[in-house]
Amino acid sequence: MSEHDPSSNPTSGGQSGNGRPIEENLRSKATWMRLLFMVICCVLVSISSFVGSFVVIFGFLWLLFTGEVNRQIQQVGQNLATYIYQIIRFLTFNTDERPFPLGGEWPSGTAD
């Protein structure tokens, strides 16, 4: 998992060498930076979901009036879905890689 997982070291019992893991975590700049990035990611996932609603509506209207799926709209939807997936992985501590624009690139294609 990540280096932040206290259970990854079975001999420590979830505590650091001096027995004060909570105090160390509260003073850790990395912990507070993670919180800042998580708050920003929550805003980004909200915006992305809002944009995704328009992509869905526009894609349906395109299908309704033309009778066929628009490949460009389909690709935008796929990229947006992959982006939301990357944000959720970061928010749930499944990865330490920050999503676009906080460190990563805008996704193109399927989720990895």
Task: Give a concise summary.
The protein is mostly helical and 112 residues long. It has a domain at 38-112. 59% of the residues lie in helices and 0% in strands.
Describe the structure.
The chain is mainly alpha-helical. The chain has a domain at 38-112. Helices cover 59% and strands 0% of the residues. It contains 3 helices and no strands. It has helices at residues 21-27, 29-66, 71-91. The radius of gyration is 20 Å and the shape is elongated. Residues 6-16 have low confidence and may be disordered.
Q: What would you call the shape? A: elongated
Number of helices: 3
Helix/strand order: HHH
- In percent, how much strand structure appears in the residues? under 5%
- Low-confidence spans: pLDDT under 50, at least 5 residues? 6-16
